[in-house]
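FAQ
Q: What does a multi-component entry look like?
A: The components come first, one per line:
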Amino acid sequence: SASALERKEYIVYMGEHLKGVTSAESVHFSMMEQVVGSAASEHLLHSYKYSFSGFVARLTDEEMKTMSRMEGVVSVFPNRHRKLH
Amino acid sequence: TTRSWDFMGFPIVSERTPLESDIIVGMLDTGIWPESQSFDDQGFGPPPAKWKGICQSPTNFTCNNKIIGARYYNGYHFLLPGEILSPRDSEGHGTHTASTAAGRQVVGANLGGLAEGTARGGVPSARIAVYKICWAFGCADANILAAFDDAIADGVDIISLSVGGPFLLDYFEDSIAIGAFHAMKNGILTSNSAGNIGPALGSIENYSPWSLTVAASTIDRRFVSNVNLGDGRTFEGSAINTFDLGPRMHPMIYAGDAPNTSAGYNGNQSRYCFSGSLDEKLVRGKIVLCDSPRIGAVRAGALGAILQTSFPYIKDLAFVVPVPITLVEMQDGGNITLYIKNTSQPMGNILKSQEEKDPRAPFVIFFSSRGPNRITPSILKPDLTAPGVDILAAWSPISPPTGSPEDTRSVTYNIISGTSMSCPHATGAAAYVKSFHQSWSPAAIKSALMTTAYPMDPRVNPDTEFAYGAGHINPRAAVKPGLVYDADEGDYVRMLCGQGYNATTLRLLTGDNSTCTSSNNGTVYDLNYPSFALAAASGTPFSVIFHRTVTNVGLPNSTYTGSFGLLGSSEVGLRVTPRVLSFQSVGQKMSFTLTLQGQITVRMPTIFLTWDDGVHKVRSPIVVYPS
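Then the predicted structure of the entire assembly, as tokens:
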């Protein structure tokens, strides 16, 4: 269905820094390539690389499920909006 | 803050360390108004050497030696009118929280003459690093995580985050808990607001064990805007009303007598003061009495409005109003209605607000989110409470103080309420403790704040610890707690094992070979937390042992005796073993167990475990409640 193909913003959280990896961004890009294919750079929005590992990506429902099963992924969750208290 | 710090016994002249100016407070919020007097850098030296951040200043925004860093995170969202693509705060909230945590002293701060005094943060000499994560659409998780990622790397000492959402999320699907976890790993305590959806139980929005969760309570200052009637009577109204209508009386009209009939309204509709329901000719220049808290009368040209409300907490907090408005209780509103109905030329006035002393203070405000913690019921949340009601602090002059389009005022200080306001008080207190003890872990700082908190009165706080946690912050005492319940990343990992996380996930979180074994599984009770909570099956006997370790940070040779303070009678048996802890050195650790045995069908009355060496009282609440 159309909604299943619709891309939404997700956070792919991968925990602590990847040990022995020089570029977290390249790891994140490689994961996106595996799941999204040639559109990886278009849909990889931001990499967390200084204090922990993870990235923000636009994914379909199916891609989100695939991503959440990948090695090294702690969780994949939607980019929700919080409110000021 | 012109009253809040004094109210908690933390006067302007408190002991300070020169190292306070090395403390960097990271504010994740709506940005900052850098020209505010609260952030003047006169007298400040260059940023501390440990600072690695930047000042992202696209246009018209510059940092100084007080605001040493600033970044903004907009993701991929369009700006709404009035928003500024820079760390500059067009909302006011971030300026307010930053000045509460670490603003410098500003004499004579006030809002229209109200709450006048010296505004100040908890650590006036500390530096501020700004991470603008919130925009008109809200605060996206992606922005929150990006800010944590940068702030940790930049070298901040404390993180303050006054946002949340009504989502019940696993810790590692929650951006705030994830960010705070990595902050903790890097020695940074995150102070979080509890949430504003109380008083329902279980409404806490930030509940991770490694962060400090702060409830909101009142101070002993309340604002009243009274109503005077032509017959000499006065009724108490609730509002932060800066408008002075002068000494003379003004004509009054009941909204039900001024329907906009040309638009099809009758008196039964206009009495509620919906916009457009009132006849402008009849209300213009008059004080209108409305049967509901709506501002349609002012939009129709009224001089002012008296709004009746059945809201039960009207005397607990007041809101800044954009025009001369005050809220009155229904009974008083009924009397004012009778006066208007039975008087040929009813006259009255709405007085500019006055400050009154509130002898009930402090109590936790109704909106402050309550425990228990629904993700980990055996970790008590909130952790403590701090002032969050009618707090005056710095503001962005381009943002109306009420946010209302009717409000044309530009102010540099504003009075607002929320757990957003209590959180930076705790942040400031945590930074104050850190300035004296720069090597202390986030858990040790949190422990110091919790075990030295002032006891709250359960008679005015029926939700007791679920409302206020360990009690009300007491910054001066927190610097000298005597003992601390310390914890490191490994302790939280062991707790997470007990929570059911598998080794694969934990290894990713920690980046090492952490694993769950039979010896560290099922140990939520044993997280070295400064409070004790047990969710017990109703009517089922239980026997639970909590293991704790305390570190001596007081006198080298000190002997602490454990005792229980009980308010009311308890069906639960309590035992602490050993009852005496004798320390020979600072930094020495000693362990004890707390055993709870019994059976409950209702929540156990408040009990404290207190370790006392004659100088320090190290107090922890014990909460047993039906799961």
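Q: Is there any commentary attached?
A: Sometimes. For this entry: Chain A touches chain B through 30 residues (CB under 8 Å).
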